[in-house]
Fold this sequence. Notes:
Helix content is about 85%, strand content about 0%. The chain is mainly α. The protein has one domain (about 5-149): MFS general substrate transporter like domains (Growth Hormone, Chain: A). Helix 1 packs antiparallel against helix 4 (about 95-120), helix 1 (about 5-30) packs parallel to helix 5 and helix 2 (about 35-65) packs parallel to helix 4 (about 95-120). The radius of gyration is 16 Å and the shape is globular.
Amino acid sequence: xxxxxxxxxxxxxxxxxxxxxxxxxxxxxxxxxxxxxxxxxxxxxxxxxxxxxxxxxxxxxxxxxxxxxxxxxxxxxxxxxxxxxxxxxxxxxxxxxxxxxxxxxxxxxxxxxxxxxxxxxxxxxxxxxxxxxxxxxxxxxxxxxxxxx
Length: 149
């Protein structure tokens, strides 16, 4: 299995997990005692953190050139954050964990696109098609699981 195929399969599985947890996440936070405003603020903080740290991780991976390290550590940290979120006693614990997860998500997302770009330099005739497949299958996994959840 090529690295491109492996990364595409991982992205598909990862986005499937995001797709299944996304729609029920608000219900989970509400079950922990949060109101609608807190749920909205939590989502906003998560999104803003991801945006900010995507830039930070992008610069770091360009500067250091260590895309695989950012990719693997981002995946591991993202999994750890979601594992810890499953056991919190109330919604207040979610804020630092969601920020941590967003930082990890940004590391993975940025590094995966950069690494895919690096890998596709070896295939200039199919770069667009393969990048489209990589992103498209990730989106398909997300949408499929969001629909099923």
